[in-house]
Amino acid sequence: MKKITYLILGHLCLTLGIIGAFLPILPTTPFLLLAAFFYSQSSPRLHGWIINHKYLGPPLKDWQERGVIGKKAKILATVMISLIIILRFPSLNINLWIKVFASTVLVCVLAFIWSRPSTAPKE
Questions:
Q1: Can you give the pTM of this predicted structure?
Q2: What rounded mean pLDDT belongs to the chain?
């Protein structure tokens, strides 16, 4: 039952990650990282597929093996999060404290992203 749950969660995260590649409001990389984790727990074949995928695999391998987030991904994340904070949050009809809290969380996410290396350390 546990493997089936992880497999379903892997499929769900993969789907959300792919959708996130086309929708700026939905993040791609966290969902792909979760999909890789869930597949590693449920299906070695699917885990191998996602890790060795032509487009999805390289950033996942960089993160899994070296803790690296590429510069292009960092810039894209910064632009998207900035656009959400600057353009979307002001138009939302919600409490100011919720906007402040959400903005703080997103800024912390950016701080984490930029604190990771952009390239693998030389050995």
A1: 0.71
A2: 88
